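Deliverable D5.2: sample structural annotation.
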Amino acid sequence: MHIGGINTVKVDTDLHCKMNKITLTIENTNIFRAVWRKVLDRMVWMDYEWTVKADLDSVFVPNRLLHYVQDPWIQNHAQEGNGLWLNNCWRGLHGPIEVLSRQAMQIYNNRWLQCEAVAEAKPQEDVYLQECMQTLGIWKSDMKHLLAEDHCDHHDFWKCEGNFVAYHPFKEEKKWMECRNNLGDD
């Protein structure tokens, strides 16, 4: 489907998932594995150096990501060996923004089935993706300015200050727009 310059593709999967009452996390790995499989199968990612998954309630600033991935170490490792994924939080990967190099996507595509056991053991999609990347031997680069959110100890994320690539969460459109407008022309 084509909506306002954006092409959408149907992912035929059950969107129901349960809330873990102990950890208070949503167990959504199966949904996101279906989405990643659709992305991998369409092969559009091969035309780009990086693939980004951003949640709808994240304010994502692509130009800032472009700046950060120009880092020489990242440039030297992103498309070599098994590729690179960017870690966005000191606690581990958080789902509001996930960034994988083209080479990481290639390895993920080629060795997808090696993450089956991870999918069964890790019901949260971001934990699954992190563990899958580690299982596949894809390099990790910690990027402290990738995500501003409360769960990563950026308690004033809602001010939309600093040079972060993504700010999360903004559940109301008005708040999302205020944040985006506060960031200027980045």
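Annotation notes: The radius of gyration is 16 Å. The chain has a mean pLDDT of 93.
The annotation will be released with the project's public dataset once the embargo ends.
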